[in-house]
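Per your request, structure below.
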């Protein structure tokens, strides 16, 4: 049987002015508002954020914007998947209230001259090292989304764990009155983290890809059991390389600052990985 829509198709607005007009009544009624920023090509990971937003606020705004300033010159901006109609169907099913879909000119008009330069968790030698300028683009666009939507809460996936810490820090440092919430990574049955970029994987690369999560799980377990992190990480890197990946990093870090993890037993730690297979760069992480 065809799925009948429980919800109305959300309204789509493209300018900041139309966005604010569409939200003004909610604002007058002081309805709590949640924002879920995305680059579209939506999958079940994104929808889990919308579900959490629905539970956490009265109104849910989803932004869809493939942000040019967070892509490097040799990255996949122009071929990034764009699936607008399917995205709107999924957001209708999930019950999103409003979709903000600006174009690049709306976000970066002629004469745009103000980029944020985050440090702290944006300068720790993880994705910042392999994607120079990436977090400047991310922090800038998210700050603009926050000041455009003015949500009470904003929900991001743990999937992009460094990004989440950068955004939490940015919102705190700029006194933006938005509570930034992280949500668990949604995975395929074989452990591969859902990602809009998984569509790039060839069948052979797709078959190899679950090694990332498998290695994270095995390594976290070994570290928790008291094995020296250096040895565990060296073994993990070998395992990932043997599956055909070119590894950017596999690192154990402090869960909040992302600085190299101290040797103590108490502090919360995170194991993070980034690696390339074919032309596709995948990232993943796990709590330790
Ligand atoms: P993106 O469209 O890739 O920029 O992602 C938009 C948001 O969805 C970010 O906060 C991501 O961390 C989050 N996200 C992406 N993949 C997943 C996943 N597999 N599980 C949970 N959240 C995710």
């Amino acid at each position: 049987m065809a799925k009948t829509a429980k919800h109305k198709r959300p309204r789509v607005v493209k300018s900041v002015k139309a966005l604010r007009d569409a939200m003004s009544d909610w604002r007058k009624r002081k309805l709590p508002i949640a924002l879920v920023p995305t680059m579209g090509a939506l999958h079940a990971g994104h929808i889990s954020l919308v579900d959490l937003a629905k539970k956490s606020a009265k109104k849910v705004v989803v932004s869809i914007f493939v942000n040019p300033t967070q892509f490097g010159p040799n990255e996949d901006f122009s071929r990034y998947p764009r699936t607008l109609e399917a995205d709107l169907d999924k957001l209708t099913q999930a019950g999103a209230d409003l979709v903000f879909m600006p174009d690049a000119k709306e976000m970066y008009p002629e004469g745009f001259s103000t980029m944020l330069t985050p440090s702290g968790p944006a300068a720790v030698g993880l994705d910042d090292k392999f994607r120079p300028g990436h977090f400047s683009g991310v922090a800038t666009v998210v700050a603009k989304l926050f000041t455009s939507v003015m949500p009470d809460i904003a929900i991001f996936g743990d999937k992009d764990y460094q990004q989440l810490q950068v955004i939490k820090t940015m919102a705190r440092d700029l006194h933006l009155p938005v509570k930034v919430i992280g949500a668990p990574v949604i995975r395929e049955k074989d452990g591969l983290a859902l990602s809009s970029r998984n569509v790039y994987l060839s069948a052979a690369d797709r078959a190899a890809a679950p090694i990332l999560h498998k290695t994270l799980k095995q390594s976290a377990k070994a570290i928790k059991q008291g094995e020296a992190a250096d040895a565990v990480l060296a073994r993990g890197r070998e395992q990932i390389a043997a599956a055909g990946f070119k590894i950017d990093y596999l690192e154990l870090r402090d869960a909040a600052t992302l600085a190299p993890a101290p040797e103590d037993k108490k502090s919360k730690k995170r194991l993070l990985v980034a690696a390339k297979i074919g032309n596709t760069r995948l990232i993943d992480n796990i709590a330790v």
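The mean pLDDT is 96.

Regards,
D.
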